[in-house]
Specification:
Blueprint lengths: L18 H22 L3 H21 L4 H24 L5 H56 L5 E7 L5 E7 L11 H9 L6 E6 L5 E7 L26 E5 L5 E4 L6 E4 L6 H14 L3 E6 L8 H10 L9 E3 L2 H21 L18 E6 L7 H13 L5 E7 L9 H6 L2 E5 L4 H7 L17 E5 L11 E5 L4 H12 L7 H4 L10 H10 L9 H4 L20 E3 L5 E3 L8 H6 L11 H11 L15 E4 L7 E4 L10 H12 L3 E3 H8 L3 H14 L9 E4 L4 E7 H16 L1
Parallel strand pairs: 7-11, 7-12, 8-9, 8-10, 10-11
Antiparallel strand pairs: 1-2, 2-4, 3-4, 5-6, 5-14, 12-13, 13-14, 15-16, 17-18, 19-21, 20-21
Helix pairs in contact: 1-3, 1-4, 2-3, 3-4, 6-12, 7-12, 8-9, 18-21
Length: about 725
């Protein structure tokens, strides 16, 4: 049995006293000693002995801390005064008289005031000393840089306006006003300056424009912050409640400042090769979003919900968290379709249902009761074209409704990231890469000047994000925080009580009827027989709803209202077939149909014979299709100018995949069709390539009773190919 982490408050035995409270404690202790000592006959000399020892210890402490001599004398005098009053009270046995009590109160007040004043004076003096030391350091650096720029670049008339150190002493920034005839440094200035400064490995020089023309900022990195492992801060002060408006922290920049991305108005794009630390960076972003109390986090990861499992552990198996940290995890293509349908419908519901809140801005104000919805999508290359199209809809329409998407992939190329995702993602994060061209492709501005060697370590990368003025900065190197599964489980307990819920307006749509029972569908798949904690029962002890699956496309039909081909709105076509007879009698002026089960049924019916038999040709206008593996499919029939546009092998394979539930491994499909798996796969892949249809996830699908990932096909993929063949023939 896994040990449960206690969330009860722990006793704090630390001494957290100010100088004033410390003086009050000393005075109170003296009064208590005098009161009890007068009753028990304590000798007055004992009080003087204790006061003398305290004064000596105070003098030694002040000497060690290099406090001013006058402050030391004052503190020692206070100790001796306390001892003298206590000894006098013990000698006369009068600590409880009004006179002695009055002297004690006056002395206590004077001691508290003295302690507070001395500390404030010392802090002021310490600050002044630090400022004088810093100013001396800056003046020296400014003089050195003035001479250095003159010596290396023969500048005349330039001025070093200031030098500002960075946090932690890892570097500094030099502000230089350039002469009017030389407004910029030469192209090789960075290398010359680095060599002249003899910077260590990991150090570097960066030249930026200042706030006005003619000013430049020379940023000098003297220590390699990126080489260090930087653990995610998780102390009490680092887990306080935040807002999504403050952005998501990712790590530290070379100047030890925190790297943050803004995802309130903009979507984000995170890419990185295998082993670059991309998954760790995604979990850091998860931690930042879950620390807020105004953000609902959803995940799409059809490769096994890997980005969600660490955050669900405390709720699903340990039972330490009362609610799931991740509001929804789509672990399969079908579940991802349901999630996207609910979100798309919710975006429309928010836009119409919260019109009264759109007064000063055309975008909703994010609060705990009206949270932002942040969807993190990992391994986006594994998604189908239809699913990518739905994500594009969310990206394009969700800004005003406060629904944003963070897309994650191995590369930022067109075969992985759609054009809409890249265009709408003003926040870009590129983890460690080996090819500079990938960074140039990811960062359209400033990317050409990026050197991958500036972030060579695991967990390093570059990012650009809009600042407070909504200006996207140039790509900047950073080192991501390191977050461990142990930290994730602890943070899950801390962040569970602040999780917001989706409002009724968002869930008042037809697709949202499948929202409540989402965990009843998901948990049995991702935990496969493991014992679930009682905290999951409120989410699973209900009727589990499964939307019907379209028998041709393999896509769940949630009732989402979409735009039809003629521009009108209507529900998605239900899973129904259109008979050949009905097709033959359909009027020519019927409105065009959206691609779905009806249109696909018509195409399949046209590819078959009139009597429905595949191996016979009807008289007159029958079409005969012959398919041999390893050879081009030959089509013949009458009329000669209208051959069947859809290969019979494709339609047969699609029917078998639909019968298998919408997805099947290649070997199982070959068994059903009674042919060789290699020949079947070769021919089907050739047919798909001929119309430009690609298999998502490099051809791997999770199918069968064990959900094993092997080469196979989706009904949605073959349906897209059938539609492509029919469309190509029409054109």
């Amino acid at each position: 049995m896994a040990a449960k982490t206690s969330t009860s408050a722990a006793l704090d035995w630390g001494w957290h006293h100010s100088p004033a409270t410390s003086a009050a404690l000393v005075a109170g202790g003296a009064y208590a000693v005098a009161a009890t000592g007068s009753v028990t006959g304590l000798p007055p000399s004992h009080a003087l002995l204790v006061a003398g020892a305290g004064a000596a210890a105070q003098a030694a402490a002040d000497l060690y801390q290099r406090r001013p001599g006058g402050h030391t004398v004052a503190r020692c005098a206070a100790w001796l005064t306390v001892g003298g009053w206590t000894a006098s009270a013990l000698a006369d046995h009068t600590p409880l008289t009004w006179g002695m009590t009055g002297w004690w109160a006056a002395g206590a007040a004077a001691g508290i005031t003295l302690a507070r004043g001395l500390v404030q004076a010392e802090e002021t003096a310490r600050t002044e000393r630090h400022q004088r030391k810093l100013q001396k350091w800056a003046n020296k650096r400014a003089s050195e840089w003035h001479d250095r720029l003159h010596r290396l670049f023969r500048l005349e008339g330039h001025q070093v306006d200031g030098v500002r150190p960075w946090k932690g002493g890892v570097g500094y920034t030099v502000l230089v006003t350039m002469p009017s005839d030389t407004p910029e440094l030469p192209a090789d200035a960075v290398r010359k300056l680095a060599v002249d400064l003899r910077l260590p490995k990991g150090g570097g020089i960066e030249v930026r424009d200042g706030e006005t023309y003619g000013q430049i900022l020379i940023r000098v990195t003297a220590q390699d912050v990126l080489a260090q492992q930087i653990d995610l801060p998780d102390g009490p002060e680092d887990t306080t409640v935040t807002s999504i408006y403050t952005g998501l922290p990712l790590g530290l920049k070379p100047d030890a400042e925190e790297a943050r991305i803004a995802v309130v108005d903009d979507c984000a794009l995170i890419v990185g090769q295998v082993g670059s630390g991309k998954t760790n960076t995604i979990n850091v972003a998860n931690a930042g979003a879950l620390r807020t109390n105004d953000t609902v986090v959803m995940h799409i990861d059809v490769t096994g919900a890997g980005i969600s499992l660490p955050w669900l552990h405390a709720w699903a198996t340990d039972g330490n968290a009362p609610v799931p940290l991740i509001d929804w995890t789509a672990d399969t293509i079908e579940e991802a379709h349901i999630l996207c349908d609910v979100v798309i419908a919710g975006i429309g519901a928010r836009k119409s249902g919260h019109q009264d809140q759109l007064v000063d801005d055309d975008k909703l104000k994010v609060t705990h009761d009206l949270p932002e919805i942040l969807i993190l999508v990992d391994e986006i290359a594994e998604l189908t074209p239809k699913l990518l199209s739905k994500l594009d809809t969310i990206v394009n329409t969700g800004r005003a409704a406060r629904v944003r998407v963070v897309d994650c992939g191995l590369r930022a190329t067109q075969d992985v990231i759609t054009a809409a995702m890249k265009k709408q993602s003003r926040v870009r994060v590129g983890m460690r890469v080996s090819d500079p061209e990938e960074l140039s492709h990811l960062f359209p501005t400033g990317g050409a000047r990026i050197n991958p060697k500036a972030a060579p370590y695991k967990g390093c990368g570059f990012y650009s994000s809009p600042d407070a003025d909504d200006v996207v900065s140039d790509p900047t190197a950073f080192k991501a925080y390191r977050i461990t599964p142990k930290q994730i489980r602890a943070l899950s307990v801390t962040y569970a009580d602040r999780r917001p819920r989706l409002e009724d307006v968002f869930l008042d749509t037809e697709p949202a009827q499948y929202y409540a029972s989402r965990w009843g569908r998901i948990l049995p798949r991702i935990y496969k027989g493991k014992q679930l904690a009682p905290t999951t029962h409120p989410y699973t002890d209900m009727e589990i709803l499964h939307p019907p699956i379209d028998e041709f496309t393999g896509i769940p039909n949630t009732g989402l209202v979409e735009d039809n081909a003629d521009g009108t709105a209507g529900p998605r076509a239900a899973s129904s077939s259109t008979t050949p007879a009905a097709t033959a009698t359909a009027p020519a002026e019927a409105p065009p149909k959206r691609f779905g089960s009806d249109l696909l049924s018509d195409m399949l019916a046209a590819a078959r014979t009139i009597d429905g038999k595949h191996d016979q040709a009807a008289p007159g206008d029958a079409t005969v299709i012959e398919a041999d593996f390893g050879r081009v499919i030959r089509q013949a029939g009458a009329p000669q100018d209208r051959p069947n546009p859809i290969p019979q092998l494709l339609t047969d394979a699609h029917q078998h995949i639909v019968a298998a539930g919408g997805r099947i491994h290649t070997g199982d499909l070959a068994t059903r069709m009674g042919t060789d798996p290699v020949a079947l796969g070769t021919e089907l892949n050739r047919l798909l390539r001929a119309v430009g249809v690609e298999r998502p996830g490099k051809g791997s699908v999770r199918a069968g009773t064990d959900g094993e990932s092997k080469a196979g096909y989706l009904a949605e993929t073959l349906a897209a190919a059938i539609h492509a063949y029919a469309t190509r023939n029409t054109q």
